[in-house]
Amino acid sequence: MYIALARIEEQLADIERDNLRKAYIATRPKFLERATAIHAVPDFWSTVIDEAPAEIDQRIQPRDVPALNCLTGIDVERFEVQDAERGEPRSIKLTFSFKSNQWFHDEQIEKRFFWRMSKNGWSGLVSEPVGIQWKERDLTDGLLDTAVKLWKQEQEFEVRNVLHLRVRDANPALRSKQANGQDRDAIGATDEFKTLVEKVQRTPQDAISIFGLFGFRGHQISAEESTKAMKRKQDMVGGVEQWEELDGESPPLPDIEIYPHGEEVAVAFSEDLYPGATQYFTAAKERDAKMSDEEPVSGPGRSEESDETDEGEREQRPKKKNKISSAMD
């Protein structure tokens, strides 16, 4: 009985995935059209960011605000989608466009998040560190640059090992010998690894710049492992393979993860802030207009009771963090 329910839940998840793919194909042209229209609206994206949902808002540090005020565009692309029937729609690419500023040289910064599944059934987003060309101050205080250096070092070691193994396999005389190339474990002895672990350990998570998002890696699940895990799950759902209950628990993040909130923030951008940008912008403008219309009334016609009532109303209103003023202090 429980197996039947589990299979139905998995089938419903597949339907949601297919609907997401079809919705993306149908709405993508309109979002591109919206992007063109936004270019004519001053400070659109900086206003939207100031209204960002909590998952994003709580990750923005006061020092981030001046750079975020230079935003000229945000785009979300489900880059693995090929058409309405093919491609993984849960993988996303975030593109942030900036006008010329004093913090970094980049006019655009892209970050890809790959949807992956582990062999124990966990699924979510993983990524690769992306560098930023800082001008003077590194808003991540060196975390991002170190994460990128370590990632590049890992890729060099991996390529070196692959090339060595190919040479060994092509030469029968070498097949019995161990690979001479350094493997991924050797990374743990490098200065970059030690430096990054130390930086991560001494930096409070709630003090990391939102630009640390570009250093997010997530769980180290390869495309090969993910493909095998998804195939096995499909076989179990379809009855081809005997059903096995997977725990689906999230494995611990590596010690070198500089931005543990990466998946949460990426999802908030792609599923909330980006599609709802016009609504966030409109809400901000309506609130600003209402505040400018509300002028305090003073004089003999105003009673103490009305003063107390107004004060109570002000206390009950939701308070928006004023990061801009904090950044200027």
Mean pLDDT: 81
- H and E order: HHHHEEEEHHHHHHH
Q: Which regions are unreliable across 5 or more consecutive residues at pLDDT < 50?
A: 162-168, 174-182, 299-322, 324-329
Q: Strand sequence of the main sheet, in spatial order?
A: 1-2-3-4
Strand content is 5-15%
Our measurement of the CA-to-CA distance between the termini, rounded to an integer number of angstroms, reads 62 Å
Helix content: 40-55%
Global Rg: 25 Å
General form:
globular
Sheet of most strands: 4 strands, antiparallel
What is the number of beta strands?
Answer: 4
Q: Total helix count?
A: 11
Secondary-structure class: alpha+beta
Describe the structure.
47% of the residues lie in helices and 9% in strands. By secondary structure, it is α+β, with helices and mostly antiparallel strands. A four-stranded antiparallel beta sheet has the order 1-2-3-4, sandwiched between helices. The longest helix is centred in the N-terminal third of the chain and has 37 residues, at 2-38. The radius of gyration is 25 Å and the shape is globular. Mean pLDDT is 81; it is low at 162-168, 174-182, 299-322 and 324-329.
Question: Main traits of this protein?
Answer:
single chain; 329 residues; alpha+beta; 4-stranded antiparallel sheet; globular
Topology (SSEs and partners):
Blueprint: H1 2-38, H2 44-50, H3 54-57, H4 65-68, E1 71-77, E2 92-98, E3 108-117, E4 123-127, H5 143-170, H6 191-202, H7 223-237, H8 262-273, H9 277-293, H10 304-316, H11 323-328
Antiparallel strand pairs: 1-2, 2-3, 3-4
Helix pairs in contact: 2-9, 5-6
